[in-house]
Amino acid sequence: MKELRYFFTVIIIFVSCSVFASNAKDPLPSWNNSTSKQRIIKFVESVTNIKSQSYVPKAERIATFDNDGTLWVEKPMYPQILFSLDRMRELADLHPDWQTNQPYKDILTGEYKNILSNNAEIMFQESVKDMSPEGYKSIAYNWITENKNPRFNKAHIELIYQPMLEVMDYLRANGFSVYIVSGGIQDFIRAYALQAYKVPDEKVVGAVFDTNYKVTKDNEPYLVYENKFLIRCNYEGKPEAIHMFIGKKPIIAFGNSNGDKAMLDWTQSNDQKALMLLVHHDDAKREFAYDVNSKVGTFPKSLFDHAEKNNWQIISMKDDWKVVFPFELKKMNKKLLEAQHE
Amino acid sequence: MKELRYFFTVIIIFVSCSVFASNAKDPLPSWNNSTSKQRIIKFVESVTNIKSQSYVPKAERIATFDNDGTLWVEKPMYPQILFSLDRMRELADLHPDWQTNQPYKDILTGEYKNILSNNAEIMFQESVKDMSPEGYKSIAYNWITENKNPRFNKAHIELIYQPMLEVMDYLRANGFSVYIVSGGIQDFIRAYALQAYKVPDEKVVGAVFDTNYKVTKDNEPYLVYENKFLIRCNYEGKPEAIHMFIGKKPIIAFGNSNGDKAMLDWTQSNDQKALMLLVHHDDAKREFAYDVNSKVGTFPKSLFDHAEKNNWQIISMKDDWKVVFPFELKKMNKKLLEAQHE
Question: Which A residues in the span 45-84 are in contact with B, Cβ-Cβ below 8 Å?
Answer without folding.
Answer: 59
